[in-house]
Design brief:
It is a single chain. The protein is α/β, with parallel strands linked by helices and about 170 residues long. It has a single domain, classed as Rossmann fold (3-Layer(aba) Sandwich). About 25% of the residues lie in helices and about 35% in strands. It is built from 4 helices and 9 strands. The chain has helices spanning about 25-30, 30-40, 60-70, 125-135; strands spanning about 10, 20, 50-55, 75-80, 85-95, 95-105, 115-120, 140-150, 165-170. It has a 7-stranded mixed sheet with strand order 5-6-4-3-7-8-9, with helices on both faces. A hairpin with a 7-residue loop joins strand 1 (about 10) and strand 2 (about 20).
Amino acid sequence: MDYVSLIRDIPNFPKEGIIFKDITPLLANGPALAAAVDDMAAPFKDKNIDLVVGIESRGFIFGPGVARELGCGFAPVRKAGKLPYHTESLTYDLEYGTDTLEIHVDAVVADHRILIVDDLLATGGTAAAAGELIAKIGGIVSGFSFVIELDFLEGREKLGSIPISTLIHY
């Protein structure tokens, strides 16, 4: 599947100098969306994944489909204050400040194998924080799956030796 042709560049969004990779054309194309979900799940089919965790917000788009392909459930990781039940949280550093991620305390069963899904791997800070959060509540991060990776930002370096699958590299 030619995913690159379905990604639209939006210059200077959300701020000057950034080229935003817009996935909405891919999402609007039913066969491409189905193929993307299949391709994101494929490297992990034999890894006995117990749960897919999607990172807010676009990880929520791909995560449930990947979970369905892998025959497991799905749990969201959200920004602080967005989940209704008891949560565990992790605050992490950004380039200019901090952010906090949360997950329900009962979302992960101890020692379950977790696949973390998101649309984009850039600097790796959010994905690494999600991995730390999963470990904090007893899960084992068995992989990361992304639609897009911005290779020049070297985000995968923050994810260590955990398997990473990406459909598109820029």
